[in-house]
Amino acid sequence: MAATGAAAATAAAAAPQWRTLIERSLKKNRSLAYSRYVQLATVRPDGRPACRTVVFRGFLDGADALTFVTDRRSEKVGQSAANPAAEVAWYLPVTREQYRVTGALRVVAAGDGDAALAAARRKAWTNMSDAGRSQFVWPHPGLPRIAADEAAFLQPAPDSAGDPVADFCLVVLNVEAVDYINLKQNRRIVFSQQQEGDAAAAAAAAGAQAAAAAASAGGGSGGDGSEGEGEVPRDPPLTLAGWTATEVNP
Amino acid sequence: MAATGAAAATAAAAAPQWRTLIERSLKKNRSLAYSRYVQLATVRPDGRPACRTVVFRGFLDGADALTFVTDRRSEKVGQSAANPAAEVAWYLPVTREQYRVTGALRVVAAGDGDAALAAARRKAWTNMSDAGRSQFVWPHPGLPRIAADEAAFLQPAPDSAGDPVADFCLVVLNVEAVDYINLKQNRRIVFSQQQEGDAAAAAAAAGAQAAAAAASAGGGSGGDGSEGEGEVPRDPPLTLAGWTATEVNP
Fold first, then answer.
1. Rounded CA separation B57/B128 (Å)
2. Domain holding A92: CATH number?
3. A·B CB contacts under 8 A
4. Structural domain tally of chain B?
5. Secondary structure of chain B: what % helix, strand, coil (to 5)?
6. Are residues A173 and A200 in the same domain?
7. What is the pLDDT confidence band of residue B194, given thresholds at 50, 70 and 90?
8. Do A146 and B208 touch (CB under 8 A)?
9. Are residues B169 and B197 in the same domain?
10. CB within 10 Å: which end of chain B, N or C, has fewer?
11. Would you say residue A189 lies in a domain?
12. Chain B interface, mutation test: which of A74, A87, A149, most B Cβ atoms within 10 Å?
């Protein structure tokens, strides 16, 4: 699992290709506000899966990690403490693309000792809408709704300029793999972090990189998926930022 | 975990309220073809979660179970064999509603001995589009894409009137609980299967039923969420089809 610091170091080089693809997809889908909604899966303490919709809040400054926000009282906080493994499914309707982003969650609560993450939490708070900030002072999510609590849903939103309220948490997904599928073109690319010295994988990935570059050029020629196959250069370059890309069958 | 037979028996009575809500939501979101896309979370054999987008194919005939289709070669088939627990997240953009549907998966492959499920699998096959049927004769999903396989992506679709191809599977989600949230109205209702003799839960649920009925009446008065609270009748009726509904804090 990539630590945030390590991710920040590699991000100083070029962004990994999966991030470039996501940013391009978000731009093409920006007419739909809910294209920033993704489904986040975690595992409950009893071993069963949990899945809910969350809002993508952007990439972490200086890193290729995804950020979300949550309430410290929510079930996903306890779930990720016991098992940080997570997978996000992100469906983008305009371009008919899906990203599956696999990684480990890091919940940044009030008092977190990592100064960069504490700053990111504060920034996320400032960027929230009034309606978004209000939810963090509502009664405990998931508990039975009772009449005595109703006034609490009507209180004014906490100030965006002040400290985040105690229950406001930033959620960071440190990315380990990305599975990208383009349903218009019937293309699928799996991005994974390269193992050091894995020259065979690098060679295999080089041809896929060319295919992926063709896919990311946009427009699409109808998706027969035959471009770039089998053209492995003799001296393959290392992939960007330690990632390999492999085109696989959809 | 409810067996399909038991679900069919209770469905002979009125549909559970969560199903009525889903059907109403689908109608209101029918302008978006992708409102039938949901995210399905399972657990991988190594204990990490998996999450991907699948298409809702309707309720199982005679039951309140959700159906999907999949390729027997897909990872979710192996995952659900080892751990059938699943959760679907369903976000509906027009109405800003989310359903989280928790339950157990049953994969119906070729040669399944359950005659009703085998018939449902055949019906699902017939209802697929040509493009949908084609995918089940494509090269093994997830394996590296190679030039020698490209012609296989171009072969004609298998006949809808014939037997489903061997790799075509129906996936049934037998529902155990539903967590419904309406983001426009800031209302949330949890539906769970009633334990026999759980009179206290039935009494608590009765007030929530009234609130849920107000929510399901549609239109919405602005979502202050105060209707029906605290009005527990002295002699609460049993909830429909063995389900309880509890309004909880969003």
1. 9
2. 2.30.110.10
3. 169
4. 2
5. 35, 30, 40
6. no
7. confident
8. no
9. no
10. N
11. no
12. A87
